[in-house]
Design a protein that fits this description.
Structural class: alpha+beta
Helix content: 40-55%
Strand order of the largest sheet: 4-9-8-5-6
Pfam families: RVT_1
Radius of gyration: 34 Å
Number of domains: 3
Oligomer: single chain
Largest sheet: 5 strands, mixed
Number of helices: 22
Protein name: Reverse transcriptase domain-containing protein
Number of strands: 12
Distance between the termini: 63 Å
Length: 600
């Protein structure tokens, strides 16, 4: 007996009463499932503010078609239709249960279980066809129901002991940037952000000082706290005011429609609040790429403690040195400004005001076996953040290295110029372990000072060497931060998140390559290119990659290299090789997060 001959089988075996009940169960099962799909479709329409075609009726007065009364009437009719479907569904459900009992009473247990499975198999194609019809209807309206929303489970990496439900994974898969509809519009915060943006763009305070200097009668302006604006600033202020008013109007208009998606919003809020209130979990993003990582807080703390317990890199402080260090740096900058050794722009960028300690957090390296954490410092608002930005502009001229990757096009062009016989060579990647925390600060600062004061001719009106060293010390060596309620000082290495971190790392590595690469090229390195801490190397035949890696690690105590090796294909696949190498390196090409990215 199967789905094709079940009725014939029951007739041949004189199971006429069983055949009748079988047909009844099948009929009510199919109707129940189809009505269930109808209800799901109608509820999806209500949630997504879609009006089904059967509720789109004409009115004698065409103006009523766009009125709020007409739309409210449609919503009420949709609600009434959903209520009617639920009543019909409950009635069918009771009849289905009753028919199942009748079928069970008139046939043996084995036959009953077999018939139930056959009923499901027979009705399954019809139900799937109905599901496809519902999906097509919603797709034509460019919306899908929440239950049909597809998400990539691989985006969410659960490293904790807590098991996540499908709804939680689906909600987290939207990413950390996913925003829910706010319950209210914070007008004061929006206006404050616009004003801050205006101040940064126009540098209004500096222009105000210049214009005030030309005014004869300053007392009324000062007493009324009036800002004197130029014509361009007045025009910009007018445009920003208009844009702010438009944005506020649209935000309030959208907020009033929030009830249309309240079910979806409520579910998302509930799931996210439940996860955020779980004190045993840490929810963050991975070190490379996009996604969500969930960890046990105990595991997160233990891995961070391993990093901070390195007494050669970090030191726990018993006090917060923010105010003292801000005062010392401000006094130094003020003296240099008075001596005309720094520009007004440098002063405005570097001077600290209302500083606060940085915040340290860790990003899981999910591409590593033991999933270590990369320490990242959110340094925006710290006393030396502006100084780092100002110095970055000043010392960027030191970056001159042919071994650094400029762009993908140059990289592919260089690969094509390599001699023929690719199959004889080895493609190798040398990675530097924990580059930023292992950069020797004193040595790197000395390289910078030697470049500007020994190699380059020092102009008479620039910062003196001793003062430059003090500025570099403030920007690098005196960087404190908060972690888990404690204040730490980074006594060596640079923090990922500092404006100077990529630059200092590049300066140190360029000096390393300048000193040691010529010797290693004689040992069999045919091609060497680097992006930050990842290198792409091609070795000559017979050269041991592990041997080269070991000798590289012996060149400087601060640098430890690891190696990954791959043999290249033969000559006729040269075009495929360049494409493969491009993809390979693009995955490794991750720009270090600055303070802005770290805060975000």
């Amino acid at each position: 007996m199967n789905t094709d001959n079940v009725e014939q089988y029951l007739r041949d075996n004189n199971h006429h009463h069983v055949l009748f009940n079988y047909r009844t169960v099948k009929k009510y099962y199919l109707r129940t499932e189809l009505v269930r799909l109808d209800i799901r479709f109608l509820k999806s329409c209500r949630t997504k503010d879609i009006i089904p075609k059967f509720l789109q009726f004409k009115t004698a007065n065409q103006n009523l078609g766009s009125s709020a009364t007409y739309k409210e009437c449609q919503r009420r009719l949709l609600k009434a239709e959903i209520d009617h479907k639920y009543q019909h569904f409950n009635k069918l459900k009771k009849m289905h249960q009753s028919s199942i009992i009748s079928l069970q009473q008139c046939c043996p247990g084995d036959l009953f279980e077999r018939l139930q499975k056959i009923i499901i198999d027979v009705c399954s194609p019809l139900i799937k066809s109905k599901e496809q019809t519902v999906e097509d209807k919603l797709y034509r309206h460019t919306l899908l129901t929440e239950s049909q929303h597809k998400f990539n489970r691989k985006v969410v990496r659960n490293l904790s002991t807590r098991k996540l439900s499908d709804d939680e994974i689906g909600c987290l898969a939207n990413g950390l940037d996913y925003g829910l509809v706010p319950k209210r519009f914070d007008e004061m915060s929006a206006v404050g952000n616009i004003e801050q943006f205006f101040h940064r763009v126009t540098d209004i305070f500096q222009h105000h000082k210049k214009l005030m200097a030309d005014l004869k009668d300053k007392d009324p302006v000062i007493s009324n706290d009036i800002r004197v604006l130029s014509t361009k600033e007045m025009t910009l202020a007018s445009h920003l005011r208009s844009l702010t008013d438009t944005f506020q109007h649209q935000a309030n208009k959208y907020r009033k429609k929030q009830f249309l998606i309240r079910d979806e919003q409520r579910q998302s809020y509930k799931l996210l609040n439940s996860l955020s209130q779980n004190e045993s979990l840490v929810i963050t993003r991975p070190d490379k790429g996009r996604g969500i990582v969930i960890m046990n807080k105990s595991d997160y703390y233990s891995k961070m403690d391993v990093i901070l317990n390195d007494s050669t890199k970090f030191k726990c402080l018993s006090y917060d040195p923010t105010i003292e260090r801000e005062r010392r740096l401000r006094n130094l900058l003020y003296r240099l400004k008075k001596q005309c050794l720094i520009s007004e722009q440098f002063w405005n960028t570097a001077k600290p005001t209302g500083s606060k300690p940085g915040r340290l957090y860790g990003l899981p390296k999910i591409h590593k076996d033991d999933i270590p954490l990369r320490p990242v410092l959110s340094s925006i608002g710290t006393y030396n953040y502006g100084l780092g930005r100002a110095l970055k502009v000043m010392i960027s001229s030191m970056l001159q290295n042919e071994a650094v990757i400029k762009d993908t096009f140059q990289f592919i062009s260089d690969l094509k110029s390599i001699p023929k016989g690719f199959s004889r060579y080895k493609m190798v990647s040398f990675d530097i372990t924990s580059l930023y925390t292992n950069i020797p600060i004193d040595e790197t600062i000395k390289l910078i000072l030697n470049y500007f004061y020994d190699i380059e001719a020092q102009p008479s009106n620039t910062i003196k060497r001793r003062d430059m060293q003090k500025l570099l010390d403030f920007a690098t060596k005196y960087s404190h931060f908060l972690y888990n309620g404690k204040v730490y000082d980074q006594i060596d290495g640079v923090s990922m998140g500092s404006p100077l971190a990529p630059l200092l790392a590049e300066i140190f590595l360029q000096d390393f390559e300048k000193k040691h690469l010529p010797r290693f090229k004689k040992m069999g390195i045919l091609y060497w290119k680097r992006y930050v801490d990842d290198t792409f190397v091609i070795l000559k035949p017979g050269v041991s990659a592990k041997n080269i890696c070991a000798k590289l690690s012996q060149c400087h105590p601060a640098l430890k290299f690891t190696v990954e090796e791959e043999r290249l294909p033969n000559e006729e696949d040269k075009k495929k090789i360049t494409h493969k190498v491009k993809n390979y390196y693009s995955k490794k090409k991750e720009i270090p997060k600055t303070g802005e990215a770290a805060k975000k």
